[in-house]
Amino acid sequence: MNVICISNQKGGCGKTTTAINLAASLAAAGKKSLLIDLDPQAHATFGLGVRQDISNSSMYNVLTEQPNKKRKFLEHILIPIDDHLDLAPAHILLSTIEQEFTNKDESVSKLYEVLHSLSFPYEAVIIDCPPSLGFLTFNALRASQAVIVPVELSSFSLMGVDKLLSMIELIRVKLQHTPKVFALPTLVDTRSNFSQHMIQEIKQAFGEQILSSFIHQGVAVKESQAKGATLKNYKPKSKPAIDYEMLAQEIINKAFSQSSSFFESAPRSLPNENPIRDFT
Q: pTM to 2 decimals?
């Protein structure tokens, strides 16, 4: 089971768009895929057209230990979205989950344990993280073998990335687990000299750990979000839809081949400063 989280605490970088459309594209390529919405704002859930009441059937109910709200297994909340694609939806109650696990050592591995208790495996699990570096993101990083960091091509695109990398370093030190980190350029306008400049800045920051695929700007993205549909189902010939197909194929080539080292090597040298809370 290949587990990849999509994380960047900076808003507006295409994080949820990437989670939704990468999962959908992997599913379209025949990989049995699960999208976990771990953001209390539930944008990925709404972005896939889920409108029914899930107040008792969300990731909160799987992670909580409150007996009157607990769902024992992840299978109990899954929503089928498309062929080969299921969703584990989010709810605003997720914003309260950290309070339940204050000072509990096992809390950082809750999601990891949930995934490994599944009665049937997925080939790909994509986790949409909240735009913050708190308890939920820590759990996602702990459960993942790789992290994709969407980086929009703006002047502020790399601000805060070191904090995310510091959190990954904390996981390495405390849990002896090091997910591999990859940058994904998003909102790309190849006609712009500034975009070309920012791609070079990202390459300088991440070195070889930048995906060769990148995601173009396109009005189809916002339109598909409003429709509650994936790009592949809404406008499959649009440039962003094709970009996500190419990204999915790159992930398949890197992660699913027998000789793959996609999940094996550690990220680049990380900052020594650790400004984040020690959850362990």
A: 0.88
- Encoded amino acid at 92, one letter: I
Distance CA 44, CA 20 (A): 6
255 close to 2: Cβ distance less than 8 angstroms: yes
Q: How far is CA 229 from CA 17, 47, 111, 233, in A?
A: 11, 6, 26, 6
The pairs formed by 78-82 with CB atoms below 8 angstroms and a separation of 24 or more are 78/34, 79/50, 79/54, 81/24, 81/35, 81/48, 82/24, 82/27, 82/28, 82/230, 82/233
> Which DSSP category does 140 fall into?
H
Encode pLDDT of 225-270 as tens digits: 999 999 999 999 999 999 999 999 999 998 776 545 555 544 443 3
Closest listed residue to residue 276, CA positions, set 205, 174, 156: 174
Residue with tokens 């024992």: 72
Closest by Cα among 164, 170, 212, 214 to 190: 214
Spatial distance between the Cα atoms of 115 and 3, rounded to a whole number of angstroms: 9
CA within 13 Å, CB half, 156: 7
Cα–Cα distance measured from residue 202 to residue 7, given in angstroms and rounded to the nearest whole number: 16
Instruction: Decide: helix, strand or coil at residue 216.
Output: strand
Whole-angstrom Cα distance, residue 215 to residue 15?
Answer: 11
